[in-house]
User: What shape does this take?
Amino acid sequence: MPAGPVPYEALPAIYRPASQLSRGPALLTPPAEDTWPSLPDTPPGRFQLELAIGADGSVDRVVPLCDEPLCPAAGVYAELVSQWRFQPGDLAGQASPSRLRLEFEVGPPAEAVAPDDQALRQ
Assistant: This one.
């Protein structure tokens, strides 16, 4: 497995970026708050998921873009988002396969984690 993120071109060209569409895909099935996984052993950080959305609005493929320590969490999130449904992107009035990149943050935000000696300096 390569170190670092998978390149953006990992999805076939048939899946157009939103910048090439008349209208980008829109999420039809917002996730419920209680469906997000709890991953207590995952180090804090961010990763992205690249979604290939078919002309029918289904998620055809999810490509995790992650650094190695966060790839297991990205895989769990990829499984969750693969079940989402979208109003497909539109190109000149026709439904079009598209790609969408989502960013996720796991663990407490870096600025919320105080160093151990923070209390001593207050």
In short: The beta strands are 16-17, 26-27, 45-53, 59-65, 86-87, 89-91, 94-96, 98-106. The CA atoms of residues 30 and 84 lie 8 Å apart.
